[in-house]
Write a structure and sequence with these properties.
Number of helices: 9
Distance between the termini: 21 Å
Shape: globular
CATH topology: TIM Barrel
CATH class: Alpha Beta
Order of helices and strands: HEHEHEHEHEHEHEHEH
Number of domains: 1
CATH architecture: Alpha-Beta Barrel
Bound molecules: pyridoxal-5'-phosphate
Strand order of the largest sheet: 7-6-5-4-3-2-1-8
Helix content: 40-55%
Number of strands: 8
């Protein structure tokens, strides 16, 4: 089942679109099966849950943090993840930079955009993104590699399209700035019910959970 789902999704994705398996609530065995079927990136929402899976699986794939990062978990996150997709403040970026300096490594990050402008949601507002990217670009142990967005949760996947369009527009604008130490290489948007629309609007990284693993029991 998991294997068939992964193979079907991989076969549908256009070349160059990276599949991230959103692994929250899944067991290490389920994650291993998805990777065995060809998933290149495991996406985790919580540091603690990632550590538990990582202690069983190790570096069988890339590990991306796709959930909000609490400041007191930065040190542990930096030790585990290959990319942090959810940087939304200079303070968080500076903490990641500091921990990476100690380890002598550079962390690839995406800037999370609150494309729905939802007050309770993580992410930087689109109009504040350029200032944040310029600030992050000054940090030597962080490398901005693109943008990520969730968009509002909607019933109809079509309703997500304008938020993806706005995030792509921002991505292109930032790319056109040609800022030092900034790459606009990855645009991470789209989930199980919206990834096809996200790809039509320019996503080259999609984060898919339930279409791989089945419906979640909790959450
Ligand atoms: C859960 C989750 C996804 C995937 O959601 P599905 O609807 O299960 O595909 C993608 N991105 C983030 C940040 C998530 O938390």
């Amino acid at each position: 089942m998991i294997e068939e789902n992964v193979k079907r999704i991989l076969a549908e994705l256009p070349p160059g679109v990276i599949l991230v398996a959103a692994a929250k609530t899944r067991t290490p065995d389920e994650i291993r099966r998805a990777v065995g079927a060809g998933v290149p990136v495991i996406g985790e929402n919580y540091v603690q849950e990632a550590e538990a899976a990582f202690s069983v699986l190790g570096r069988i794939a890339q590990w991306h943090l796709i959930g909000h990062l609490q400041k007191n978990k930065v040190k542990r996150a930096v030790a585990l993840f290959d990319m942090i997709e959810t940087v939304d403040s200079l303070e968080l970026g500076a903490r990641i930079d500091r921990e990476c300096t100690k380890l002598g490594r550079v962390m690839p990050v995406l800037v999370e955009i609150n494309s729905g402008r939802e007050p309770q949601k993580a992410g930087v507002l689109p109009e504040d993104a350029e200032d944040l990217v310029r600030g992050l670009a000054e940090l030597e142990h962080i490398k901005v590699q693109g943008l990520m967005t969730m968009g509002p949760r909607t019933g109809d996947p079509e309703e997500a399209r304008p938020y993806f369009q706005e995030t792509k527009r921002l991505f292109d604008e930032l790319a056109a700035r040609g800022l030092d130490n900034v790459e606009m290489r990855y645009l991470s948007m789209g989930m199980s019910n919206t990834y096809k629309i996200a790809i039509e609007e320019g996503a080259n990284m999609v984060r898919i959970g339930s279409a791989i693993f089945g419906e979640r029991k909790e959450g």
